[in-house]
Amino acid sequence: MLLTKEIEDMANQDRGSAGSVNGGSSNGGSGTVSSSLQPQSSFPGLLGSPGYTSSSQQQTSAGQLSGVRYPPNHPLSGSKHLCSICGDRASGKHYGVYSCEGCKGFFKRTVRKDLTYACREDRNCVIDKRQRNRCQYCRYQKCLSCGMKREAVQEERQRTKERGENEVESTSSTQAEMPIDRILEAELRVEPKAEELEVTAFTMPSRAPPTPAPPVHRLPVQFAQVKPADLTMPAEKDPVTNICQAADRQLHQLVEWAKHIPHFTELPLEDRMVLLKAGWNELLIAAFSHRSVAVKDGIVLATGLVVQRHSAHSAGVGAIFDRVLTELVAKMRELRMDRTELGCLRAIVLFNPEARGLRCAAQVEALRERVYAALEDHCRQQYPEQPGRFAKLLLRLPALRSIGLKCLEHLFFFKLIGDTPIDNFLLSMLEAPSDS
Fold first, then answer.
1. Pairing of strands 92-94, 197-202
2. Looking at domain 92-152, does it have CATH number 3.30.50.10?
3. What is the pLDDT of residues 246-286, one digit of tens each?
4. What whole-number distance in Å separates Cα of residue 363 and Cα of residue 382?
5. Separation between Cα atoms, residue 174 and residue 375, nearest integer Å
6. CATH number of this structure's domain 180-199+237-430
7. Which residues is 89 bridged to in the sheet?
């Protein structure tokens, strides 16, 4: 009901009314309210309203009106007052007086646009629910005589402006707390772009006779971040061995990446160890999944090798390989996930406040919240036409977690760095000076 009245008011003002408008509104003929947009029964009167003197002072209980019924959850279902200007059911007190949404909107537009009206009659037109749109001049004068305050509209506008400024300040504060450009820099640092890179496609020899050298495929620059010098992977190794060797290379890059994530190096060394030990498998899986979005049925390792789906199945890791392809690679491809978003998701994985042995869990949780806020702000600014993008990105995290655990069960990354325990490796890397 409120919506139809507001639309009706705006439509009549656009077409014009019996009152002429100076300064932006056009003159026009009188407009009557369509009966199809109104309640079938009219208000019979203001029964039992103490102190009632004129139509300009109507503030009577709406419970005394007959024939008008609103649903229980309707904003007007519990209204106890009538509009002081037109006698319709009031939606509340607006700009100093009880009024309906139509008169409230009319007054607000008049003040904000600084419109001036002229009456074509004797400036004494009847303003009621059915005729309130016939003369804008008399309707506005009645708004003023009933006590509507122009300054209240201006104050409302100022508050709205201040809220908008506060939102901008909040966004700036978020960027300062967790600068998203530094997260992107960390991603680009460990996997720099190249103009065009050749990537070797590995085919599992399984139990077949030796095969010729594997073919070479070309990948788009945005998804292949390896150097031609790295393309020396022997084809006789199985996918698990190749993945483990790639993980060896990636672990070095992973520690370097973490050092460039904002605020990570401010944590105690022991906590940095705990976080990397808890999340390294998910962090590597996220990286090679995103790197593989341009490949069909395969993943691109850090060494430049493409492990194809049939090879993974031949090696006995087909089930988990398929999960990587369907739950991560395909979804990243579908979303067209950018490198900033990948970096934020990986930072969220890194800052895991539930990691066992963490001393500064509260600080880590606060850092994760900052990354959440930075990612949400990035989605809102860069993809305003995709309001659900932030949520879709976060939905990849449970899948990443599940796949990471399953990979460890499959010994997917079991042999990482020879006989060196992963704890000692991470510690030595964290204590080493950062590449600049």
1. unpaired
2. yes
3. 556 677 888 899 999 999 999 999 999 999 989 988 998 99
4. 29
5. 10
6. 1.10.565.10
7. 82
Nearest to 129 by CA among 236, 27, 46: 46
| Domain range annotation of the chain | 92-152, 180-199+237-430
Per-residue tokens: 248:
């060896």
Global pTM value = 0.51
Express each pLDDT in 187-224 by its tens digit: 988 874 443 344 444 444 433 333 333 333 333 333 33
Say how many CA atoms lie within 13 Å of 136 toward its Cβ. Answer: 31
